[in-house]
Design a protein that fits this description.
It is built from 3 helices and 24 strands. With about 375 residues, the chain is mostly beta strands. It has a 4-stranded antiparallel beta sheet with strand order 1-24-23-22, with no helix packed on it. It has a 4-stranded antiparallel beta sheet with strand order 2-3-4-5, with no helix packed on it. It has a 4-stranded antiparallel beta sheet with strand order 6-7-8-9, with no helix packed on it. Strand 2 and strand 3 form a beta hairpin.
Length: about 375
């Protein structure tokens, strides 16, 4: 996800003066990276040398189609159905305000999804539906999760067990479940709501001051979530079989990390960003089957200085049964995020990268502690 300069990311009520963004950890960027291009280049020097020695990850033969590319604004968190596309975007006129926008996948004018003067974040397709997304709609003192039908352009409030008087954020949903974060007086809690029974289960929690936990996908029987270390800042993806156990997605030791996972539940293939805590170093979109039968393989290999953001899967518009991969990528120098698509990603043979070289934090600057959900109000 893109760095939101001077912005917050919706995980807690914003202070009067907005703090640095929740995106900084997600994109592995420290404030000095944002402020100073020369500082960014210096921070990368050691890691780039390491990249040269290692020969870099294997390159998969993939052609990505640009969907939303505009240097005057940042676009991220794409989510698509068979016919509609939604994403999150700011503007040059008001870069600290974010809206969820949508349009037909075939093109045409876009429209704003969130209502009134609210901010909109994190659109995600409700798995198993034809044209419904879930997103976060937040004001100065409240934040709720909202269903939105992209065809009828209507909003629907979630049940009170989900949209409580507390601050809810980072929602993902299916016809069976809603997974989301709740900010309480003592902690940040990852909750799973079963739609048929109304039962809420706590999956895990973290300290209130650590914005380092979030769900990224939920289906009929699996939940995908990530948790970042408060000390190394590296993130790990877990795939939970609901009612059963969880598996971790393979990654190297910190500063290598994984985030942004989305699952093809029919095949067990998980697509995710494989990166490091250096912005734009050893970054790729990779695929791994949750059976553990093979090692992760590279689908999109980003050039140095480019990192991955959120991912989503959508029905291919031409080939029945195929899936398209949508992702946003972040330019660590230009501080800009755009949205791309890989058609029929399930038909692409990934490339197996060489063994990960040993890396340490001495080669570059690590990011600030995880701020996936924003910060509490100041006074």
């Amino acid at each position: 996800m893109a760095v939101r300069l001077g912005g917050w990311y919706g995980g807690a009520p914003p202070p009067v003066m907005r703090p640095s963004s929740g995106e900084e950890i997600e994109m592995r960027v420290v404030p000095s990276h944002v402020r100073d291009v020369l500082g960014k280049r210096a921070a990368w020097a050691g890691a780039i040398a390491l990249l040269a020695l290692a020969g870099g990850p294997a390159q998969a033969a993939v052609t990505s189609t640009p969907l939303i590319v505009d240097p005057s604004s940042s676009a991220l968190t794409p989510a698509a159905t068979a016919t509609q596309l939604a994403w999150e975007q700011n503007s040059a006129a008001n870069p600290s305000h974010w809206d969820v926008r949508a349009r037909n996948r075939a093109g045409g004018a876009s429209w704003k999804v969130n209502g009134g003067t609210s901010s909109g974040y994190n659109p995600s397709v409700v798995q198993g539906t034809a044209n419904t997304i879930i997103y976060q709609q937040a004001g100065r003192t409240d934040s709720n999760l909202v269903y939105y039908n992209l065809s009828t352009k209507t909003r629907t409030k979630l049940p009170d067990k989900v949209d409580s008087p507390l601050w809810e954020y980072d929602g993902v949903a299916s016809t069976s479940y809603v997974a989301f974060m709740r900010y309480t007086s003592t902690s940040r809690v990852l909750l799973l709501y079963k739609r048929s029974s109304g039962r809420i289960t706590e999956i895990t929690s973290i300290k209130r001051g650590c914005d380092c936990l979030r769900p990224t996908w939920v289906g009929s029987s699996h939940l995908v979530y990530e948790q970042c270390s408060a000390s190394t800042f590296a993130c790990t993806i877990r795939v939970l079989t609901i009612g059963g156990s969880a598996v971790k997605v393979p990654r190297g030791a910190a500063p290598y990390d994984t985030y942004g996972g989305v699952l093809d539940e029919a095949t067990g293939d998980l697509y995710f960003v494989n990166s490091t805590t250096y912005c734009g170093i050893f970054a790729s979109v990779s695929r791994w089957n949750v059976s553990g039968s093979s090692a992760p393989e590279v689908i999109v290999d980003f050039p140095e200085g480019i990192d991955g953001n959120n991912l989503s899967l959508a029905p291919d518009q031409s080939v029945g049964g195929d899936s398209d991969l949508l992702y946003s990528q972040y330019d660590c120098i230009a501080n800009d995020s755009d949205v791309y698509e890989v058609d029929s990603v399930n038909q692409i043979a990934g490339a197996h990268p060489p063994s990960l070289p040993r890396a340490s934090g001495s080669g570059g600057r690590l990011s600030a502690p995880a701020r996936l959900g924003g910060s509490p109000p100041a006074g």
